[in-house]
Amino acid sequence: MTATLVKEASPPPAAPADRERRRRARRRARVIAVAFVFPALLLLGALVVYPVLFSVGRSFFDASGDRFVGGDNYTEMFRDPATLKAVRNTAIWVVIAPTLLTGLGLVLAVLVEKVRWATAFKLLLFMPMAVSFLAAGIIFRLAYDEDPEKGVLNAAAVSVHDAFKDASSYPNARARDGQGLTKAADGSYGTTVAASPGDTVGLGLVGVRAEDLPGDARPAYPATTGKASADELRGVVYLDFTRGGGGEQGKVDRSESGLPAMKVEAVRDGKAVASATTAADGSFRFQGLDPGSYTVRLPASNFAAPYEGISWLGPALVTPAIIGAYLWIWTGFAMVLIGAGLAALPRDALEAARMDGANEWQIFRRITVPLLAPVLTVVFVTLVINVMKVFDLVYIIAPGPVQEDATVLATQMWLVSFGGGNNQGLGSALGVLLLLLVIPAMVFNVRRFRGSQR
């Protein structure tokens, strides 16, 4: 009875015509899907798959591409000092840049929530993303210029330095040979003939252009008149040069100018026992000296070269300087992504923590950061992939002489292949190495996205 009922309840078998119609419909849907996907697959194959396969194959041939060399390019790659330096610099980029960017993005995203004009602030921080790497590289190449007249960072560094330490007014000044002054090993000048209290000493210097004299400089001749007292040693520091020629070397002429603001010391037994600063006419005096012989010295600080700032693009700082430019561009990106994750956090947990007496730092450390961990991971891994491919900033900002000190794998690949090396076999091997380094981060990101979707 039951079998009969089940048999009667089962649907009748589909007619052959219906089954054929459904197969045709499925076949038509597949053809339409392939037709839509085919252009994308064609572009993907032409622009991604083919170049990758070609580079892998090219890496096993020599520079000319005619002779198969097997793994010689890969062996040479790890013997080349420039490539090893590129690997080291790439490792520095991977460790420092994503870490700093993720940290800055997190801090700024949290702080922006407290700012009244949050949207405007986010816009300002995100604006550098609209600037191309080429333009950003040119901007920072100028900002890092070693000349304080051009580089804004060095102009600021010089201003701060000179605010705390006076710069020398006479960096090019020097004494004439045989005119009573000798130069010491430390750059100072001292009199060759000892002086005693009651004497007047003339210290003539050259190498100072008349137009570079301080505005308050006065003629030195009046300072030579008069007689010093018995316990006083007097003198004048002057520019031993007369415009238009004439005058007598080693003697103060009426038209010669004094050199103001020069530090002068009276030295006895190798120790400075008195010091003075020259007046507008270059005059100075030491009073209350004990009887005896003294050497009058012009310390080396009078002739120190002016502070030129920091060599941002020198071998030691070029990589940190370029990373700084990269941070300027990508901080807004990290802040916006982390800010989006922050906006999706459950406010109930934050409010409950505040009601339980937790302060803002405890909430940030124990609740906000753990809840944002998936977002922070995605941002960090995305930036790791990005910094491995950095090329524009390094190539544009680093000057030619320090290009090798700043090189990363992407720039080294270009330099070896097209920038003078003309060895596309070795360049292809570098490209394959770069691909192998990027793949693990890409796989991690894809798995992360799939996990979040599930």
Plain-language structure description:
This protein has 454 residues and is α+β, with helices and mostly antiparallel strands. It folds into two domains: 227 residues, MetI-like (MetI-like fold); 123 residues, no CATH class. Helices cover 52% and strands 9% of the residues. The protein is built from 15 helices and eight strands. The strands form two sheets. Strands 1-2-8-5-6 form a five-stranded antiparallel β-sheet, with no helix packed on it. Strands 3-4-7 form a three-stranded mixed β-sheet, with no helix packed on it. Strand 5 and strand 6 form a beta hairpin. Helix 14 packs antiparallel against helix 15. The longest helix is centred in the first third of the chain and has 43 residues. The chain starts with a helix and ends with a helix. The N terminus is likely disordered.
